[in-house]
Design a protein that fits this description.
By secondary structure, the chain is an alpha+beta fold. It has helices at residues 9-25, 154-215, and strands at residues 29-31, 37-41, 46-48, 51-53, 61-67, 71-78, 86-90, 94-96, 105-106, 109-111, 120-128, 134-145.
């Protein structure tokens, strides 16, 4: 049967699917953490986190940070897992604070003296030549504020207090109910014992009286 025949196509599907799953498993992935939003106070320093993972390792890996997708603020390269990244180019207010020789491939940066104009989208882009130049990126959004707003937790504390009080009352009610049921059960068991004991005594007395009556001989004529 010819390889290009329609009957051969179904046999190729499982192989292609397996190759696709394998490619996904070994794919390059970039992450900025559990949340992709960061809030910073004006004139402060802010951390922009980024890590990458790859199952087959990396060689001459290139990573770049972009501001609003166009402005490059940091550009670095990593020779291998045994070496730390070296700088290619950067914005003077950006400092590299990551490390790639440990467990995590950390390529995070710190943006110093944040200004309101720094608010926007920051993209961490990674390219790995060892994975046939596979590329991946992750984005984090920075908001710059004049003053940090303190969260009012009064309502939350009230709700937690009310719920906790209701749970406490429910537990107390269940305990009281169990104690009352225990006392009632003990009282009923005591009454049953008294009835059984009283009934046994009555039967004994009646039996003794009957025996004496039977033992007494009838008067002779």
């Amino acid at each position: 049967m010819a390889p290009g025949s329609p009957a051969a196509a179904p046999r190729l599907l499982p192989a292609l699917l397996a190759l696709h799953v394998l490619a996904i498993a070994f794919a390059l992935e970039v992450s900025v953490g559990k949340t992709n939003t960061v809030t910073a106070l004006n004139n402060s320093d802010v951390l922009l986190p980024c890590t990458f993972t790859t199952c087959i390792g990396f060689q001459d890996l290139v990573f770049t940070w972009y501001f609003n997708s166009t402005e490059m603020i940091y550009h670095g390269k990593i020779k291998s897992k045994a070496s730390e990244p070296f700088l290619v180019g950067r914005n003077p207010r950006v400092e590299f604070v990551g490390s790639t020789t440990g467990k995590d491939n950390n390529i995070s940066i710190v943006l110093k003296n944040v200004e309101f104009s720094d608010a926007g989208k920051y993209t961490c882009h990674v390219k790995n030549p060892k994975e046939k130049n596979a590329q991946h990126n992750a984005t984090i959004f920075l908001t710059v504020v004049h003053k940090m707003v303190e969260t009012d937790n009064t309502l939350t504390l009230i709700i937690v207090g009310v719920v906790g009080g209701l749970i406490g009352l429910l537990i107390l009610f269940m305990l009281i109910k169990r104690v009352v049921l225990f006392i009632i059960k003990k009282t009923q068991d005591g009454k049953k014992e008294c009835l059984v004991s009283s009934s046994g005594n009555d039967n004994t007395e009646n039996g003794l009286a009957g025996s004496k009556a039977e033992q007494k001989a009838p008067p002779k004529a």
